[in-house]
Amino acid sequence: MNDVIDCQQVTRTYNEGPEKLTIFSDISLQVAAGETVAIVGSSGAGKTTLLNLLGGLDRPSSGHISICNQDIHRMSEAGRARFRNRHLGFVYQFHHLLPEFTALENVMMPCALGGMSVKTAEEKASAVLAKVGLSERLSHKPGELSGGERQRVAIARALVNEPECVLMDEPTGNLDEHTGEGVRQLIESLRDQLGIAFVMVTHDMSMARSLGRVLRLEQGRLLVEQEADS
Ligand SMILES: Nc1ncnc2c1ncn2[C@@H]1O[C@H](COP(=O)(O)OP(=O)(O)OP(=O)(O)O)[C@@H](O)[C@H]1O
Q1: Is residue 168 in some structural domain?
Q2: Which of 55, 124, 128, 169 is deepest in the core (most CB within 10 A)?
Q3: Strand 70-71 to strand 19-32: parallel, antiparallel, or no bridges (unpaired)?
Q4: Which H or E run contains 173?
Q5: In this predicted model, what pLDDT tens digit does every residue of 108-145 receive, in sequence order?
Q6: At 198, which CATH number?
Q7: Rounded CA gap, 171 and 159, in Å?
Q8: Residue 102 lies in a domain
């Protein structure tokens, strides 16, 4: 069992007064190390809900989710936060960088939260910023970076603790086509170089198809849209 993510028969319902609203039911999904999986589907299909469950930010109504062979929903809140910091990276459509901190400081943040020394955090953050092509922008604040550069800083921040898996919600949703293509190529090369798994929610079908396996969330079911090796 070398799956980074193992999601077994997961259901998420919301209580709407006396009614139960089922977003999806009995979803099973395995993601191997170094694999890219795109989740597509129409607005409101439940893509972000699923991603939040995989990241331990929300609890399933039933079913089990293991990340690196550990059931994240059996951990205490504090244990889960530590586990997330160590094993998972997150990238969102809007980069969520802290505006008053430099690119380097933003990327150092998850290291600091994990208790690393400032010197080691600085070294790791500079190295990962170099990997995303931003060695020349270490002291720039988010407001002094382009949209694509900001998203690359956000990706560097997600990678700095060397997670097994990065979860992305519309990573190119806010970027023009050319800049989005740059981010797509970066994800591809990081996956191939570092063996990190990426699970990405996107509306960008050409990016989804070009990266590997594509799953479609539709009417509460997860359907295979494209196999890994097609
Ligand atoms: N806290 C909540 N309480 C009740 N319903 C919710 C809650 N959060 C989300 N939903 C519902 O769950 C459904 C799925 O939402 P979700 O954000 O996962 O969709 P999505 O596929 O990511 O959509 P989009 O592509 O528009 O971002 C929506 O119909 C939404 O209204």
Answers
A1: yes
A2: 128
A3: unpaired
A4: none
A5: 999 988 888 999 999 999 999 998 899 999 999 999 99
A6: 3.40.50.300
A7: 14
A8: no
Could you tell me the end-to-end alpha-carbon distance of the chain, in angstroms, rounded to an integer?
24
Q: Which residue has the tokens 């929610």?
A: 201
Q: Tell me if 124 is assigned to some domain.
A: no
Q: Is residue 80 part of a domain?
A: yes
Write out the residue range of the structural domain in which residue 9 sits: 3-96+164-226
Spatial distance between the Cα atoms of 222 and 56, rounded to a whole number of angstroms: 19
Number of domains in the chain: 1
CB 39 less than 6 A from any atom of ligand 1 = no
- 44 Cα to the center of ligand 1, angstroms: 5
Q: Is 15 in the pocket of ligand 1 (CB under 6 A)?
A: no
Q: Ligand 1 centre from 50 Cα, in Å? A: 10
Q: Which pLDDT band holds residue 230 (cuts at 50, 70, 90)?
A: low
CA 207 and chain centroid, separation: 15
**47-57: average pLDDT:** 94
Q: What is the whole-number distance in angstroms between the Cα of residue 49 and the centre of ligand 1?
A: 6
Q: Pick the residue whose CA is nearest to atom 5 on ligand 1.
A: 14
pLDDT number for residue 114: 80
- Mean pLDDT score, 56-62: 93
